[in-house]
Amino acid sequence: MEKYKCKSVGIIGSGIQGVCTGLQLIKKGIPVTIFDRHDPLSQEFKAASYGNAGHFSPYAVLQFNRTDILYDVPKMLLSSYGPLALKWNYVHKLIPWFVSYLKNFNKESMLHTAKYMHQILNLSNDAYEEIFKEIDISSLVEKKGIIYIWTNKNLKSRQLEIKVRNDLGIEQKLLSQKEVLELEPNLKPVFDAGVIYESAMHARDPHGILKKIFKLFLNKGGKFIQENITYVEQKNENKTIIQSDNKLYEFEKSVIASGAFSKKFTEQLGENIPLDTERGYHVHFKGMDDLISRPVIFLDRGFGMTPMNQGLRAVGTVELGGLKNPPSKKRIEYIIKCAKELLPQLGNHEDEWLGFRPTLPDFLPIIGPSLKNKNIIYAFGHHHLGWTLGAVTGKIVSGIIAEEKTNLDLSPYSSKRFN
Ligand SMILES: Cc1cc2nc3c(=O)[nH]c(=O)nc-3n(C[C@H](O)[C@H](O)[C@H](O)COP(=O)(O)OP(=O)(O)OC[C@H]3O[C@@H](n4cnc5c(N)ncnc54)[C@H](O)[C@@H]3O)c2cc1C
Asked: Which of 72, 109, 225, 404 is the most buried (most CB within 10 A)?
């Protein structure tokens, strides 16, 4: 019997989820068109997949629905100068997300998230390695590990992280302050200890990598249309429509990979999914990337630095404030202050950037068919780990579309959990 093949797919979003999904579909011989309001090859493209910290972090199973920070969250929210911030004009809009978040603030949910993040994170590097065989990643990816450092102030949290990762069999090497400094001698010793994930990789330019994957997609016959998409619908069993500002397009199946902007479409499809955004920022210190050899994340501060081709990228903070509020100067100042605490030799910064992590209250992504529209597939909500999970999400979503069998348990990623 001939294998089932879908005849056409439209994807909304050319971030890392959309581009990797497009590539995997094209490789299966399925015609694909990706839509985005910004061309990923242009300078206007500033999505989360452009400005992130570039960590490929297969070990990062614990998320923010973790019991140890229950009492710290209100304190952090009230402080205007910490790793977590709130835009007060957004509080009323955040309520559905926050109510659901509180329901997920327990040990059972924390371990459920860790288990099912681990299931896909564990496959994430191999999925990228497959793609990297087809593109030139020299000067774009480095394999020198990733270091996390901390002070002795929140040792209970550090112990929890270490235990959960040990229980899942994740390799980690604890480091004394001295051992961290042997690896990163320029750091000011304002921390007490750390851990290194030795096999972790980092991107020296996430946008550069995304562009290469996108070009590979185009070279294999994929199409791209630069349009703002306003509407999506499943018309019948074999027809979905994607409506732009200018035109209506028809595909057998459609994929929503619009990151933090996906909620508009899920509402049109009749699903009430509490997707919101954790806003994050970056700045560059040009020519300073050789001050560290690998990413260093200061856990107490909720910030990190990655050596990149654009300079030393200082990245971080979580700001709850929706998609429309302007960037906060205070958040940028916070990141700069944290960077200079660790590397006082840093000078002026450039390139202030605000990005939108797409986050669900249980910190699992949504990957799978829409509940009411089986030919529309969701691929969003990857929060802090969307860069790491891009390639594996592409494989999973393309497998769903091609109706392939999988050994993975995909039920925890279904939007059913919110309906
Ligand atoms: C500060 C920061 C640091 C991060 N660091 C890391 C890290 O180190 N490691 C990691 O794994 N993850 C990291 N992340 C998370 C990661 O960047 C995101 O989870 C990931 O990039 C999301 O990818 P995406 O494809 O889902 O969405 P996006 O990259 O946001 O792409 C969505 C695309 O959809 C398009 N779109 C949306 N709506 C429409 C519409 N109506 N019409 C047309 N186009 C539309 C947008 O233009 C955009 O290009 C970080 C995020 C931030 C903000």
From this structure: 109
